[in-house]
Structures are given as C-alpha cells and as structure tokens.
Amino acid sequence: MEGHDVAHHGGAAGHHEWEVSLWPLLLSVSVLFVLPFPFALYFVYKSGLLAVLALGIGVPLLTVSLVGWVSEAIKGRNVNSVEQGLGTGAVPFFIVAEAFIFAGFLAAYWATRLLAPSWPPAGTPHISMTIPVIMTIILVSSSVTIHFAEEKLEHNNVSGFISWLIVTIVLGAVFFLISAYEWSHLMGAGFTFSTNIYGSSFFSITGFHASHVIVGLTGFIAVLIPALRGTVSKNFVKSVSVYWHFVDIVWFFVVSQVYFW
Fold first, then answer.
1. How far apart are CA 192 and CA 211, in angstroms?
2. Cβ neighbours of residue 170 closer than 8 Å, sequence gap 6 or more
3. How far is residue 205 from each of residues 85, 102, 198, 201, measured CA to CA in Å?
4. Domain containing 190 — which CATH number?
5. 169 vs 176: CA distance, rounded Å
6. In a shared domain, residues 243 and 128
7. Residues 6+ apart with CB under 8 A from 16
8. What's the pLDDT at 79?
9. Residue 242 to residue 179: CA distance in whole angstroms
C-alpha cells in the first residue's frame, strides 16, 4: 500500500496514512492457488492436471501480487530517504510463524522415519547426493551476494547494489531450477507423492521450501524493478534479505534430514 503524509489543521506534524490497494487481496487469492488447492486437487480428488493448472494460476499471480505490492509501497522513496514503517520489525514475527510450519513438517517426518521398520521404504529410487550438495553451495553463495549488495547500498553505491542483487536473483533462480529438474527426474523414475510415505514427505518438504524460494526471489525482483529507476528502499532490502537468510538456514535442516539422514 502506498503511504503519504497528510497535514492536519492546527499545526500537526503530519499523519501517515495508507491508500487502498488491491495487491494484498490478489496475494491472498494467489496463496489459495499455490498451497491448499493443488494439494486438495492432487491428494483428495486425484487430479494431477487440475493441481498443475492451479499452480499455473497461483504462482504467476503470487509473483505479480508481491512485485506490485512492494513496488507500490516503495514508490517515491529513494536511497537517502528517511523511512518509516513496520516492515523490518515485522519480518522476525513472520519468520517465527514460518519456522513453526517447517517444524511441523520435520516433526512428522521424524516420527515417520523413526517408526518405520526400514528406510527408505520399498519403491524409493536412488537419490543423488551430489545435487543437494550443489544446491547448498548455490544457496549459501546467494546469502553472501545479498550481503555484498547490502554493503554497497550502505555506501550509497546503487549500481553496485543492483549488480549484486541481480547475481543473488540468478543464484536463487538456478537453485529453484535444479530443484525442478530433480523433481522431474524422480517423477520420471516413478517416484511421486503417492509412491510411499517418503515420497509424500520428500515432495511436501522440498516443495514447501521451494515456495519460500519463489517468495524470496519475488521480493528481490520487487526491489530490483524500482531500483533500476533510481528508487531504493533500505527498509525493504533489509526485510527481504533477512527473509532470504531464513530460507537459507531452513535449507540446512531440509537437506540434512530429508537427503542425508
């Protein structure tokens, strides 16, 4: 939502107000098409085609909504502006909520893994350990590059900030594409959500993490677009950066438990 200062009569210093925006509504609708709808369509109604169609609607809508909302929020600000807002302070609360969701996924996996008579269950193909190592290196590198981008921004080097931000986006996109390649390879080998309990756990946990990668990349793109026009919000950069580091940390739990345990 776009903010602006409105001066009140009587010498008030100014009151920060928010205009109405459609982006939060579109974002809420997109989340339905990204998370519950595909799961229900696939697992309950046994329709993979409809699940894919739901994702085909939800993912682009999610991306557009996030980019539109963030771009609208930082419109008119520049790198030297004094910024107000609750964005940076609210991110830790959001991260804690997301961490509990990941903890629920992992706790269910641990219970299944520890109670299983043998692991992995019958029907599980060989999963390469090389790919997750490469993915880990890429994701860790992206945390380093976004740190470099922030350092450039702190010194008001916008061009350097943009360069490192683009590198971060590329690394995050490569990470996601490798995940998609691995899913495609495993599904081609007959390993799907419904193959066994490990398949359900594997695709649910890695897919949920991938959805957070998409959100992080969308946030970076939402920062990049106005930055290319000379408008940068340090507040939003910090918020997205902290979120990205969280995605990185969670990956260590995912890769160590789902792949190497």
1. 18
2. none
3. 33, 8, 10, 6
4. 1.20.120.80
5. 11
6. yes
7. 3, 4, 5, 84
8. 46
9. 22
Q: Write down the H helix ranges in 9-129.
A: 23-34, 36-39, 48-73, 87-115
The pTM (predicted TM-score) of the whole model is 0.78
Q: What 3-state class would DSSP assign to 193?
A: coil
Residues (pLDDT < 50) of the chain are 1-17, 76-84
- Evaluate whether 238 touches 85 at the Cβ level (below 8 Å): no
First to last CA, the chain: 44
Return the half-sphere exposure (C-beta side, CA atoms, 13 A cut-off) of residue 58: 21
- Tell me the per-residue pLDDT of 168-213, one tens digit each, with 9 for 90 and over: 999 999 999 999 999 999 988 888 888 899 998 999 999 889 989 9
The number of angstroms, rounded, from the C-alpha of 206 to the middle of its chain's C-alpha atoms is 12
Range of the domain at 213: 79-259
Give the pair of three-digit tokens for residue 211. Answer: 């959805």
